[in-house]
Amino acid sequence: MESRKSNPQIRRALCYANGNKQQERSPSVIVIGGGMAGVTAARALHDASFQVVLLESRERLGGRIHTNYSFGFPVDLGASWLHGVCNENPLAPVIGRLGLPLYRTSEDNSVLYDHDLESYALFDMDGKQVPLELVKNVGVAFETILQETDKVRRDFSEDMSVLRALSIVFERKPELRLEGLAHKVLQWYLCRMEGWFAADADTISVKCWDEEELLPGGHGLMVRGYLPVIHTLAKGLDIRLGHRVTKITRRYNGVKVTVENGKTFAADAAIITIPLGVLKSKRIKFEPKLPDWKEAAIADLGVGIENKIILHFGNVFWPNVEFLGVVAETSYECSYFLNLHKAAGHPVLVYMPAGQLARDIEKMSDEAAANFAFSQLKRILPEASSPIQYLVSRWGTEIDSLGSYSYDMVGKPHDLYERLRVPVDNLFFAGEATSSNYPGSVHGAYSTGMMAAEDCRMRVLERYGELDLFQPVMGEESPMSIPLLISRL
Ligand SMILES: Cc1cc2nc3c(=O)[nH]c(=O)nc-3n(C[C@H](O)[C@H](O)[C@H](O)COP(=O)(O)OP(=O)(O)OC[C@H]3O[C@@H](n4cnc5c(N)ncnc54)[C@H](O)[C@@H]3O)c2cc1C
So where does substrate get bound (predicted)? Predict the structure, then answer.
């Protein structure tokens, strides 16, 4: 591993005694996983003059950021929104510096509505459009119903699912029940909520569903795709693609990481950014095994599925709205399409199934999945012409993700995210599932990557007794005045 940055202060610090000789050696770290968290951590430690090697199993960087260019323009099969278009968003400066345009789909900051209600065109199964007034009214009613679930969770000591809490609300206040078309629209809102968590309402914890921090500024779609952000952060790093890690051995004085072909890498520490689904699968062997509290956190935190079926058409034949939806008796039967023509000018609709529906669709071939999505569209637009191309994601079954993102399951505490993040000796953990403030998001993955890099830097340098000589992770140009870290009991 070679250190690329030339910094005299650092170089001086890297020399430490080896018998009578002075040997130059900088602290080293192996970053496992080349998604947003891994690339961020590697960038930060590289800039702090660590020797960094990043091991990524796939033949591409980005992980659950996967911008595809095969249509001749960028489309995202994974993340596509910046949730919280504001300066407080840790990722905003990076996106801002790159000058990447965002298309804001919502002014408000609700988990329930990442699109303004006015921008929907909803239809019933027979293709009849739902009056916009009804769409808006049911949106308001859904918020009232959810406020009532807040009372339910305060009245019951034990946790329950969002679905169960909703049914208790309807038992207590029958006047909140909706009938006919309004009921179907309500199911559609529930379906959207399930999309946010990538999980069905009967598995989402009513105690924790709103624990995440919502940044202000609404939700902004990355019009040119998310990948440029990854590639910018990854510039100049030592990245080994096609290196799937199978074993992580930790010792007092370092870590050894083994990849599929038997090759090993050694360093002072490792930052593990492997997706929660992969950690759950236990395909990676830890030696010695991880402590029980860490294993329990991995087992108890939920991982859901959301997929994208991206349909590219020869022409635009649908209404000029941001979201097209089909309302139905149950949330499972509802569906929705993001209109990329409105946001990016491309004749593309993105169908996004989540939870059990996504799991069921993953059992189909790509062609059958695309046909299924198209059949949903035909319900509302019978004259729709067939797509000329399609792309289908399989986040639930791809062996390098085994899920889309994490969520709080019924009966499990929200502090599991923090437990997943806490280091074990010289193993540091990052990734969306380690972010208690912003789980399931790109900016959550980014901020945990920064945190893990800083924790790792402190720990490794403390051990060498050289902390005073090193630059902090934020780099040489950091401001002169940095607030003191003061805590009190
Ligand atoms: C369909 C979908 C839509 C989404 N939409 C949004 C959105 O609009 N906005 C938003 O903020 N977030 C969204 N997300 C969530 C967001 O994509 C993730 O939270 C974030 O990208 C996760 O980054 P990460 O670094 O934690 O994990 P990953 O990106 O998954 O990175 C982990 C890396 O580890 C690699 N890896 C796995 N196993 C091994 C191994 N054994 N050895 C070496 N490497 C390994 C993987 O290949 C991967 O590259 C979406 C996710 C999905 C799936």
Answer: 351
- Contact between residue 303 and residue 277 where contact means Cβ atoms under 8 Å apart: yes
Report how far ligand 1's centroid is from the alpha carbon of 300 (Å): 19
Task: Find out if CATH 3.30.40.230 is the number for domain 8-64+226-302+408-469.
Answer: no
- Expressed in angstroms and rounded, the spacing between residue 326 Cα and the centre of ligand 1 is 28
Give the residue carrying structure tokens 């624990």. Answer: 211
Which residues contact ligand 1 via a Cβ below 6 A?
Answer: 32-38, 55-58, 63-65, 78-81, 83, 244-245, 273-275, 278, 284, 306-308, 393, 395, 400-401, 404-405, 431-432, 440-442, 445
Element (H, E) at 248: strand 245-251
Compute, in angstroms, the gap from residue 403 CA to the centroid of ligand 1.
9
Q: Is 141 helix (H, G, I), strand (E, B) or coil?
A: helix
Residues 327, 182: Cα–Cα separation, whole Å: 9
pLDDT at 118: 62
pLDDT of residue 25: 73
Q: What is the CATH number of domain 112-211+306-392?
A: 3.90.660.10
Q: Is 245 annotated as a binding residue?
A: yes
- Write out residues in the chain with pLDDT < 50, as ranges: 1-23, 469-470, 474-489
40 CA: nearest ligand 1 atom: 25
pLDDT digits (tens, 9 = 90+) for 81-134: 999 999 999 999 999 999 999 998 876 655 555 555 667 899 999 999 999 999
Q: Is there a common fold for 8-64+226-302+408-469 and 112-211+306-392?
A: no
Beta-sheet pairing, 323-326 with 120-123:
parallel
